[in-house]
């Protein structure tokens, strides 16, 4: 995780400097339009990357910044996905309101779960999040009359965005829509992490025992960020439903939770863009390696993960930041 070192001129000035948009951030978002012009056949993959990146950002808020280790965050992703699908089944296929309703529903469940999350730590926390994820998956499978079970939710019909842009087979609308929502999610997340609230989350991550001593209501702050994270994950799940018009049990699977943690390790936790970079590397590598070796592509992902952990323990962005720091010195 990224270490937080605040200079002597005070936390407020440090936060203001951190909240400024940098040139490389602007370059990153400009580069996000490259698939439209140079890789139009990969726009469907690009939309999947944007959706997964938003999910990774939601997990990074609690894992990278608050230090809450989770292996069951796909529960909120899947709840958002099913909520968006069931809304269309009920006759309401408007995508933007569907996103908001799905995110709100996931956030509500996240708020309820947060009362349990703040009471456990370390290994018990991992087991609790894992158990909740597995329970939700089995519950969705058992309620096949509502979720479709292993067959998935059928008959999902999403209306055009703003009533004008239909989801086409080539992925132009899907990628534009997913990229716009990802950008808004990053803007909101930046505002959170570069605030006094975000600074208190770093304090919880680095030394939970000292936070009550300085009068910080750490449980309330953990509940707040967990609820926000669940809501963003639910929006990511709803995005997947709306852009593919399908919902399956895979949205709730442990594999999805584990994969997003791998993405954060690759890109770097506690760096906001680490999850996005990790999602790009992971999904592009999976797409290419699956074509080369459909059976053993995960072997190469594991090899890549080991190389990054050994050579750049703080992730790719952490390694690049270390190199840039040395060059400046």
UniProtKB/TrEMBL annotation:
Q: Does the keyword Transmembrane helix apply?
A: yes
Q: Principal localization?
A: membrane
Q: Name one GO cellular component term.
A: plasma membrane
User: What GO molecular function annotation could you give as one example from this UniProt entry?
Assistant: branched-chain amino acid transmembrane transporter activity
* InterPro entries from the UniProt entry: ABC_transp_permease, LivM-like
Provide the topology term for how it sits in the membrane: Multi-pass membrane protein
Q: Does the keyword Membrane apply?
A: yes
Keywords tagged on the record: Cell membrane, Membrane, Transmembrane, Transmembrane helix
Q: Where in the cell is it found?
A: Cell membrane
Give TM segment ranges: 21-39, 45-67, 98-118, 125-146, 169-188, 220-240, 260-285, 297-324
Q: Which Pfam families match?
A: BPD_transp_2
| Name of this chain's protein | Branched-chain amino acid ABC transporter permease
This chain's source organism reads Nitratireductor mangrovi
């Amino acid at each position: 995780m990224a270490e937080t070192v605040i200079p002597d001129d005070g936390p407020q000035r440090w936060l203001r400097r951190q909240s400024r948009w940098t040139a490389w951030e602007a370059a990153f978002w400009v580069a996000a339009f490259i698939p439209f012009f140079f890789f139009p056949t990969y726009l469907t993959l690009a939309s999947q990357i944007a959706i997964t990146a938003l999910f990774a950002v939601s997990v990074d808020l609690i894992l990278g910044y608050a230090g809450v280790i989770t292996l069951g965050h796909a529960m909120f992703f899947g709840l958002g996905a099913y909520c968006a699908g069931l809304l269309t089944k009920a006759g309401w296929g408007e995508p933007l309101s569907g996103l908001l309703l799905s995110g709100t529903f996931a956030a509500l469940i996240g708020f309820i779960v947060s009362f349990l999350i703040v009471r456990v730590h370390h290994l018990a926390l991992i087991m609790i999040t894992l158990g909740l994820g597995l329970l939700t998956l089995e519950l969705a499978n058992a309620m096949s009359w509502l979720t479709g079970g292993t067959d998935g939710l059928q008959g999902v019909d999403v209306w055009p965005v703003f009533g004008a842009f239909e989801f086409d087979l080539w992925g132009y609308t899907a990628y534009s829509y997913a990229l716009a929502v990802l950008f808004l999610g990053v803007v909101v997340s930046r505002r959170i992490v570069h605030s006094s609230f975000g600074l208190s989350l770093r304090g919880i991550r680095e030394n939970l025992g000292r936070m009550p001593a300085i009068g910080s209501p750490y449980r309330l702050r953990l509940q707040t960020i967990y609820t926000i994270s669940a809501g963003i994950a639910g929006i990511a799940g709803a995005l997947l439903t709306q852009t593919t018009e399908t919902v399956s049990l895979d949205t709730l699977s442990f594999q999805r939770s584990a994969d997003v943690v791998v993405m954060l390790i690759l890109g770097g936790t506690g760096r906001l863009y680490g999850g996005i970079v990790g999602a790009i590397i992971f999904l592009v590598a999976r797409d290419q390696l699956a074509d080369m070796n459909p059976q053993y592509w995960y072997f190469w992902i594991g090899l890549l993960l080991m190389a990054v952990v050994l050579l750049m323990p703080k992730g790719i962005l952490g390694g690049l930041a270390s190199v840039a720091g040395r060059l400046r010195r």
